[in-house]
Every structure is written in C-alpha cells, then in structure tokens.
Amino acid sequence: MISAQHLTIDFGKQLLFNDISFVISAKERVALVGKNGAGKSTLLKLIAGIGEATSGTITHPRDLQIGYLPQVMQLTDGRTVLEEAQTVFEEVERLKAKVDRLANEMSQCTDFDSTEYHNLIERFSSESDRLHMLGQENYRAEVERTLIGLGFEREDFHRPTSEFSGGWRMRIELAKILLRKPDILLLDEPTNHLDIESIEWLEQFIKTSGATLLLVSHDRAFLDATTSRTIEIELGRIYDYKTNYSQYVVLRQERLEQQRRAFENQRKEIEEIEAFIERFRYQATKAIQVQSRIKQLEKIERIEIDDLDLSHIHFRFPPAERSGDFPIIAENVGKAYGSHQIFDHATFTLRRGDKVAFVGKNGAGKSTMVKCIMQQIQDYTGSLKLGHNVRIAYFSQNRAQELDPNLTIRDTVDRAARGPVRDKINNLLGAFMFGGELADKPVSVLSGGERARLAILILLLEPANLLILDEPTNHLDMRSKDVLKEAIKKFEGTVVLVSHDRDFLDGLVGQVYEFSHGQVIVHLGGIYDYLSKRRMESLREIEATSSAKKEIPASQKKQTVKEDYQTQKERSRIRKNLEKRAQEAEDKIVELEAKLQQIEAELSAPNLPMTSPLFGDYEAIQKQLNQAMKVWEEAMEKLSENESI
Fold it and tell me: How far apart are CA 40 and CA 12, in angstroms?
C-alpha cells in the first residue's frame, strides 16, 4: 500500500533520514517511534503528500484515501459542532438533494411514454444507486456516535465550534477524519487532547475499522492496544520490529547491547590500527604496511550508538519537612460558572503518602479542583483545608510561561538545583531532551512543548511534600516519562496526578478520583482496577437495557417491525452466536475471578518474597480478565443492537 524507497531528508545541519526503505501493507497497524526530533512527524507529512524528500520516493495507489491528523493544524470556525462534523458528508447531501429533485420532477411528469420521462427514470436510478454505494444513508447517527465517543455531549452538538478550546476542536477534526473512513490513518499524537474514556473508544474504533494505521504516540498503553508492528527511527536509520511497543522495548534493549559490544570491539580495533600507524609511520621498511592500515581505517564503517542511556539515572526529589497526617481535607466542595455546576458536595481526605489520580472527561472539573486546592480559585462553596506544614510543588501548563526567557536552559536548571543533584544536571538535561548544544539555548526560543518539559524538570528539583501535577506527560517522550515516573514512585510525600496516560498512572497511584456528572467519586485501587470496575458497570447497564427490551409486548414489536421469514432467520442465527459468545466470556470471567481470589489469598501470606512468581501470575490473569470483559462487552453490545432492530 505504502512504499518508501531510498528516502533521504537532509536539512543541512541535520540529517533526518539516510537512504531508508520500508513497505506498509494494507490493514497493517504500525507504530512510528524515536526520540523527539528524530523525524516521525516529518515522515507522516511526506506520506500525506506534504513536502518533499531530499531524495528517494514514496509511492501508493492513486486512489488511496489518506486521513492525516497532525499535532498542530489550522482550525476553522463558523459552524456548530454537528454542522462541522457533517461537512464530511456534503457529497451525500448533494446527491440526496439531486435524487429528491429528480423524484419530484418524475411525480409532476404526465407523459409516461415520453423520452424526457425515461431519461428522468435513468438519471434517478443512476443517482440513487450512487447514493446507495456511498453507504451513508444514516450518516447523522454515525456522526453523533463518533462525536459522543470522542467525549462530546449531545448538548454540545449545536454550540458554535468557536466556544471550544483548541483541544476540543482537534477532536472535531479527528471525528471528521474517522467519518471519512480513509484507507490509511496517519495519526500524530492523537491522544494528547483526549481523556481516558475517549482514548479507549478510539482504540476500539481503530481495532474494528480495518484501516491501515501509521501512528506516532508517546502513550505506551495506546500503542500496545492499537499496533502490532514498530518502526524505530534512530540516527537517520530505521529498525523494523514485527511486534507491539512493549515487546519492541525488550528487543531494542537486546539490539543496543549487541550494538554496544560491536562498538567497543570496533573501538579497540581502530585503536590498534592507529597505534600501528603511529608507531611505524616514519619507518621506510613498514611503509607498505602503514599505507595498508590507513586504507583499512578509511574503509571501516563507524558504528554509531544512541548516546542516551537512562538506565543509570535514579533521581529523587529533594527532601522536604514532613507534612501533617492529612495534607488535603475537602468537605462538600462545589464550584459553578454561572448556572453551570462543575461539581458539588465533593468530600474526600488525602492522607500523607497517598498517591491519587484525578480522572474524567475534559471539562468535568479535574483542573478546576486543583485550582481550588491551590487557592487560584477561591469562590468555591464548602470547605477545603491544607494540613500542617504542607509544602506544594505544582505543575500546570501556565507554569511554563513563568520561566525567565533571558536565561539559557542550563542556567535555568542550574539555578533551581540544590545539593547532590547538581552533579546529575547533564544527565537530567539529556533525559528531558535538552542535551548537547540545546542546553545553551535561551528559553525564549523554545516552543510551548519544550517550555513545558523544562518546567517539569525544574519541578523535579524543588523540595516539597505535596506534588500536584496537571497533565505532566503531554510533552514528554517515553524515556522522560520513565524518569519522572520513577522519581514519583520514590517520592515519600503525597501526590495528586491529573492525567489520561494509563501506562504512566499504572503502578503509581493507589486511588482514583473520578469526576463525572458533577460528582467526585473515590475508587480504591490502581487505574486498571478502576477501568475494569467501570467497564463492568457499563456492561450491567447494557444487560439491563437488553432485558428491558425483551419485556416489550409482542404486539408492540409487530407494530414497529415487519420482517420477512429469511430476515428473521438470519437475525436469530446471529443472536444465538452472540449469546453463545457472551456466555463463554461470562464463564471465563467467573473462572478468572476465582483464580484471582485464590492468588490474592496467597499473596496475603506473611514474609512473601518480592521475587515470588505469584505477582507475575496475578498480573497475567488480570490481563486475561480484562480481555474477557472486552469480549463480553462487545457481544452484549451487538446483542443489544440486534434486539433493537
């Protein structure tokens, strides 16, 4: 489907690609990975037909439909959300209007034997067939499902797009791309502006769409859920792995170890050759051997290795004084903007050492609650108290704008660093992609994303006993996120994380605070425990809805649905298959839950070693349970749809 041959992109001072080639076949789902600046976004643009390579070619079928979502795009206003999404189907609307006009002309024609009437019939038949071929007779329902899946409420449909933030308007653009049903999706960081629910919906869409996918993302969980092949761009070359991201990381480490060994062997060989040349350079009897060694040295293709190895970076936040036992106490906290109540009667208490996640749809009140805690918003109702001796380190996107634009990156970090961490400044700069010459650039030339990264790095250097981080990972690559996550794990104080990054939250938080429909609901357990619980609640709602529909009297069904025998027979066959699949999944869920209970009992045994295989068994079975739940959910949804037709 997509073929890149001998592709080179040279910006003069920077060589992005050097003679790379690859092929992406139909229906493949490929992750494109590499450090920021490696050329991932540039490659997507080339495939989308934006820009040209220095040399080489990218070819694809002439009629290939490409859906491209860049990180930054020009957004237009002037329509409502629904109207903007429906612009995808303007051709359908034109056809429908044309078919209606032809039908009206036919109804007014009185001479059924005339050439004009027969021409009308032919044109009507042709345009009707064309409309049917587009397969979008009920596209309005599809538009609504897509917008709801991406987080919009029905009351948002008729609001002007100009009322929404850039992130929400990006969702509209993503909806338009998905509704076009392109042959290949080119998505550049699609999850940056999505909440967890919308990310999960997008995962399912991609899995069932059948479209080819080329994805750039720093969301490890999203990559694992949607891709099965990984192409890494590094030092102008590509490395192709026929596996998902997590397995790629393991294989990449093995490759780097081999590369380092080869580099060391080559370095020793070069040193030996250079030593021979230097030793016998001025001896006439060795002139031939010296020239031979010089030619040998020139022919050696130097091995390059990634100079950034984060395995040795173990960073801890600077120690701060111990806080009181209850850093945050909220009682009946509420906040409204005019008549719009964001949340109300929110009551919770954070104990010292708690690590919690604030999750929910964008606009549900997560950041608003953080601003209330920080007293940036003070007109809330209820009581919100900070405990004794609480010292807060707070990150928000606004913090990036507070950096001194006249200082260099290195000076900014140097001024914030205290104590032993000063010896690791170069490592930290490299870990957050500010290594080398970039460290000496002034803050004023940095992009918004780079400033946000620098602000997080500064945050790591502040003594605190309460961390409040609002979307800290949006501008971090995988390696930087790992450094931040490891530091938070070792942090002995209290942590509040607003994030939609499931992999980042996994193993980091022990409680999840769900912001939904004006309420704040506390869930004990990690992020995947919360998601499993929420998924099961959704399944029960679906099952209850399905049961309610079955109770509709047969007389009413006959009034609303008229089917011929063959249609009923086919629907019955489909229903039986779905019921069987749902029952098998349900049996599997019961079996796996029993196994988990047994392992949980064994894990509670005293003096259980951390190396016990039970921990791995528990995680493996938990993943199987999540998968079984997904299968059951899909079967019940389709069963519900089957019953509703």
Answer: 18
